[in-house]
Amino acid sequence: MTLRFASGVSTAETDYGTVLLDERSGDYWELNPTGTLVVKTLLGGGDEAAAIATLESEFDIGAAQARQDVETLVRQLREAGLAE
Predict the structure, then answer these.
(1) Bridge partners of residue 22, in order along the sequence
(2) How far, in Å, CA of 52 to CA of 40, rounded?
(3) Which of 1, 4, 21, 26 could disulfide-link to 10, CB 3.0 to 4.6 Å?
(4) Cα(79)–Cα(74) distance, rounded to whole angstroms?
């Protein structure tokens, strides 16, 4: 699973995660630290398995929950038109 933000999407890291701005619509989205970690892993060339493993080690959750979290976040970003 590769991830790339759509053109017109800007990001800014905050103390609480990452803020995404869809410059086309003016809508803001906020990723919590978990979402930020998943996105950084996928944008950095990691695959779904790498994102799942990172969540498991950083947040002490099981593989099934980590997989669900990764799949849900990526699906939501794509459905919102923020990622390709």
Answers:
(1) 9, 27
(2) 12
(3) 21
(4) 9
* pLDDT tens digit sequence for 46-74: 999 999 999 999 998 999 999 999 999 99
| Alpha helices (runs of H) in the chain, residue ranges in sequence order | 33-43, 48-59, 63-79
Place of tokens 């799949």: 71
pLDDT band, residue 1 (cuts 50/70/90): low
Cα end-to-end span (Å), the chain: 10
Beta pairing class for 17-22 and 27-31:
antiparallel
Whole-structure pTM value: 0.89
Looking at residue 63, what DSSP letter applies? H
54-80 per-residue burial string, b: 16 or more CB within 10 A, e: under 16:
bbeeeeeeeeeebbebbeebbeebeee
Q: Give the model confidence (pLDDT) of 29-42 as tens digits.
A: 999 999 999 999 99
